[in-house]
Write a structure and sequence with these properties.
Elements: E1 23-30, E2 40-45, H1 50-62, E3 75-78, E4 81-83, H2 91-94, E5 100-105
Parallel strand pairs: 1-5
Antiparallel strand pairs: 1-2, 3-4, 3-5
Length: 106
């Protein structure tokens, strides 16, 4: 559905990368989970290792679902492309950009 504006939309986004310095916004979606039907959004440093991202942000968020098993996720995607993250890789090394979507299936 298209939207017709009644005026110009000429101002910078309030969530643009330059406002976050060395951090970025990362969306995480648990595919096919009716309890977690929408992605969560986290502010994380680009240099954060995957293991820290999981332990500090992703696992506590997903752990709000009683069926979450931190050892279970194994099918990861980044912006729709399959990835196999390792604990020592940083988000930047994995190719995670500002407002990227990481998804997983348990």
């Amino acid at each position: 559905m298209s939207v017709k504006a009644i005026g110009s939309y000429d101002f910078p986004s309030r969530s643009r990368q330059e406002l976050y310095g060395d951090d970025q916004l990362v969306h995480v979606w648990w595919r096919n989970n009716p309890f977690m039907s929408a992605a969560g959004t986290f502010r994380a440093p680009k240099a954060m290792p995957w293991s820290d991202f999981r332990a500090a942000l992703l696992d506590p968020w997903a752990g709000t679902d009683p069926d979450f098993d931190p050892a279970a996720p194994g099918s990861w995607t980044l912006d729709g492309q399959p990835i196999t993250p390792t604990d020592d890789q940083t988000l930047e090394q994995l190719g995670v950009g500002h407002k990227s979507l990481i998804s997983f299936a348990a």
